User: Fold this.
Amino acid sequence: MLVVGAGGYLGSRVARRATAAGHEVVGTATTAAAGHRVLDVRSREAVLALLADVRAEAVLNLAARMDDWAVTADGAAHVAVGAGGARLVHVSSDVVHGGRPTPYTENDLPDPKSRYGAAKAAAETAVAAIHPGAAIVRTSLIIGSDDSQHIRLVHDLLAGKRGGFLFEDEIRCPVHVDDLAAALVELAGNDYAGVLNVAGPEAISRAELGRLVARRDGLDPASVPTGLTADANLGPRASDVKLDSSTAYALLGVRFRSVSESVRG
Assistant:
């Protein structure tokens, strides 16, 4: 099993779980660390060469970078080409959607508002066209431990290490990192093809998530700085994006934890 992006928060958990399940795992990272192979997914030649060398039976692509279209979109296409006849699981995001009151299912087409969302949508299009048998996993905020970027943000805001606030009107379905990792490893071993929503069972605002973290740490939830997306001047972004993950819950043998369970670790 080849895990592209094994040096990241989710990727390290995927590699560890796959190894524990008995798979021979090769991981890639942007720099030499933890025994991973160095790979720049922006280079088509480098991706094809590594995949030809590893000859994996399953390829999981977790590589993405919020400010780099070439990593997120072009890199996904390179991995899809290089995967050839291998099983391919590609990790996408709820940011491909523009936001609405009702939950999104797998049948809803992308309508991104941000450049990162557009890159993720382009990646999905490329993967589906190049590798029709691939599983394309749309997920949400990944939490479960204090090294989650979303929980680190709460800590930094509470400690005054950075400015800003958490949005009361930005709704997501956070997923525990280990639950998502288990789902990805399981998907690598089946033949599900197409888009699959894999997120947590509860919808919550970023602000309320911050208050949950504060309560866990014995801090005053009211001390969490909050506001509205319109006040942030961050450009277009989706506010209410809830993923209906009922298909994944029926398909996979994973119990997905609630937000409060995930915050506890």
Q: What stands out?
A: Residues 100 and 240 are 6 Å apart (CA to CA). The longest strand covers residues 87-93. The mean pLDDT is 95.
